[in-house]
Design brief:
Elements: H1 22-44, E1 79-83, H2 88-100, E2 107-114, E3 119-126, E4 129-131, H3 132-139, E5 151-154, E6 159-162, H4 165-174, H5 193-208, H6 210-215, H7 220-240, H8 254-270, H9 285-295, H10 298-301, H11 306-316
Parallel strand pairs: 1-2
Antiparallel strand pairs: 1-5, 2-3, 3-4, 5-6
Binding site for glutathione: 120, 146-149, 164-165
Organism: Dendronalium phyllosphericum CENA369
Protein name: Glutathione S-transferase family protein
Length: 353
């Protein structure tokens, strides 16, 4: 049967017969769509019994380092990053690569989400693979976990080193200084590690993953809880940024990198599509200026792709946007407006490695 030719006759209220009343049609349609929605969401966003989104952990967690016996030693030209431009987790790795000046030492390929294949695909074959899932299986035959970006790939052993962004950016910050243009830049200094880690944990739970907990919530209670936590943390950050240029003081750190990638996508996608619409980031006095401050760093701006974010979020998250319509807004030119935050770090010297 061709569904395009399927016709449903809706009776008028004045006719009698064995037709299905409009009220029942609506109820049936709602029931069918709800069941299909829950089925799709179970694949896209695993949940607990209360309907709260539970993000699966990354499974490949090897390290690059100079320790004796370590399979993955630092080297220029050996490692490769696979990233999606819309993905906030992958975006972190591009930012640290750019800030450290590692573009010539670590190559990059951009993958694209495919609603048809249900995963990331290569624009042209890589390592004989057409999809990221194939690359995972090339690295680890029989792999059955999630095939996510970013991927830090070792071209020498044809294996995935790591697929956890939080760990990849630490390695990019510290293990490639011999090959980095900005080798003295240290985004994770020893004396700030405890404070950075504290912020990272708080921001991951309530903000980085918090927006997904809002968008992927499958009950009202789960959504309410996630949304309240998200904006409570954003309010707290806004207060801290009144007197601090960056999260940990006067110097940019990995905590700022990890927060930025969510903030950049917030007004574009999370505010509307993920129902995080209590307040936009641009409406925060200090947090909005902080976002502009970071965006106006040349290295960071070069990694930001507004159109990819809109196309991939609205075009590929079918359960959240069944029509696939891409919004024309918002106007993000405000990111280029003055931020007036230089005075908060006057005299500061970036930490060195």
């Amino acid at each position: 049967m061709n569904i395009r030719n399927l016709k449903i006759k809706i009776p008028s209220t004045q006719k009698k017969g064995n037709f299905l009343p409009p009220k029942l049609i609506i109820q049936l349609g709602k029931f069918i769509w709800t069941e299909i929605w829950h089925l799709m969401m179970s694949k896209l966003a695993p949940r607990n019994q209360s309907g709260e989104y539970i993000r699966p952990s990354s499974q490949i967690r090897n390290s690059i380092g100079t320790q004796a016996g370590n399979l993955y030693q630092p080297a220029a030209g050996r490692y490769h990053l696979y990233v999606g431009l819309s993905c906030p987790w992958a975006h972190r790795t591009l930012i640290v690569q750019a800030l450290k000046g590692l573009e010539e030492s670590i190559s990059v390929s951009v993958v694209s989400p495919s609603a048809v294949s249900g995963g990331w695909v290569f624009n042209s074959p890589e390592e004989g693979c057409h999809t990221l899932a194939e690359l995972y299986k090339l690295s680890e035959p029989g792999y059955s976990g999630r095939c996510t970006v970013p991927v830090l790939w070792d071209k020498q052993t044809k294996t995935i080193v790591n697929n956890e962004s939080a760990e990849i950016i630490v390695m990019l910050n510290s293990e490639f200084n011999e090959f980095a243009v900005n080798s003295t830049l240290n985004l994770y200094p020893e004396e700030l590690k405890q404070k950075i880690d504290w912020w990272n944990e708080k921001i991951y739970t309530s903000v980085n993953n918090g927006v997904y907990r809002c968008g992927f919530a499958q009950t009202q209670e789960a959504y309410n809880r996630a949304c309240n936590e998200l904006f409570a943390t954003l309010d707290e950050i806004d207060a801290v940024l009144e007197t601090n240029r960056y999260l940990c003081g006067s110097n940019l750190t990995l905590a700022d990198v990890r927060l930025f990638t969510t903030l950049f996508r917030f007004d574009i996608a999370y505010y509307g599509l993920f129902k995080c619409n209590r307040r936009r980031i641009r409406d925060y006095r200090h947090l909005g200026a902080y976002l502009r401050d970071l965006y106006q760093l040349q290295e960071i701006a070069a990694t930001c792709d507004l159109e990819s974010v809109k196309q991939d979020y609205y075009g590929n998250l079918f359960p959240l946007n069944p029509g696939g319509i891409i919004p024309l807004g918002p106007d993000m030119t405000y990111l280029l407006e003055p931020h007036d935050r230089n005075s908060l770090s006057k005299g500061a010297v970036q930490q060195t490695s």
